[in-house]
Amino acid sequence: MNVEVRYSGRIFEVAGGMLKHAIDAKTAKIEKKLKDMGNNPSAGVRIHAVQLSTVGDDRLKRIQELAANPKYKGLANRTYETFENETQINYLKSTSKGTVITVARPQKADAKFALMGEIIGTGEKFYLYSFDNFVFLNSDNTTQKIDFSNPVHLDKVKELSIKRLNNNVQKTLDNNDLLVMKNSFEVYKDFKENLLKTIEPVTRTS
């Protein structure tokens, strides 16, 4: 579905801007606390597997309802609620066939649990983005979950990504980086399968 240029900016603001400022502020705060831990042996992070609610599905339904308004009809192409930064939003607004990599709110149909981190000592919790959260978002508002075992998807990831080194030098990804991603994805899949064996009996009774 094509979207008139005059409406494209507002569409991405609606779809990508929900909670964006709050997320940025929360992320910066958590990142600072994690860096401040340093090598403190009493500091650390505990990982929790949290059963997903239908929030992601409900918010996507709301986006689809907004698409009934002609101003936001491009949102009908959405299969995920995503969160872009301002640079990505501006790029998609100005590029008719652009694509970016972004993160999506998980849906219950895709994953039975989400991962949360907890800072030991303070009890403060934060969301952990996993391989399940990354999607391609196109200028026409179509979204596609990234399959890190798919060579075509990996080539696209290489094209759209950079890595930032410790000295803030930016480099393009190489084939070794893609191999690490692919192998890590396979390890993550095994981790999920083993974790599900543990939590499924609990979720069936809760």
Task: Give your account of this protein's structure.
The protein has helices spanning 5-17, 20-37, 55-66, 86-94, 151-160, 175-205, and strands at residues 45-51, 82-83, 99-104, 113-119, 125-128, 134-138, 143-145, 162-164, 170-172. By secondary structure, the protein is an alpha+beta fold. The protein folds into two domains: 1-145, no CATH class; 147-206, no CATH class. The strands form three sheets. It has a four-stranded antiparallel β-sheet with strand order 2-3-6-7. A hairpin with a 4-residue loop joins strand 6 (134-138) and strand 7.
Primary descriptors:
three-stranded antiparallel β-sheet, disordered N terminus, 2 domains, 206 residues, 6 helices, 19% strand, alpha+beta, four-stranded antiparallel β-sheet
Low confidence ranges: 1-23
- Binned, the helix content reads 40-55%
Our count of domains comes out at 2
CA distance, first residue to last residue: 41 Å
Spell the H/E element sequence: HHEHEHEEEEEHEEH
Q: How would you classify the helix and strand content by structural class? A: alpha+beta
DSSP summary: helix tally: 6
Taken from the alpha-carbon principal axes, the silhouette is globular
Our Rg estimate from Cα atoms comes to 19 Å
The averaged pLDDT comes out at: 79
Please give the number of β-strands: 9
Strand content: 15-25%
Oligomer: single chain
Major β-sheet strand ordering? 2-3-6-7
Largest sheet: 4 strands, antiparallel
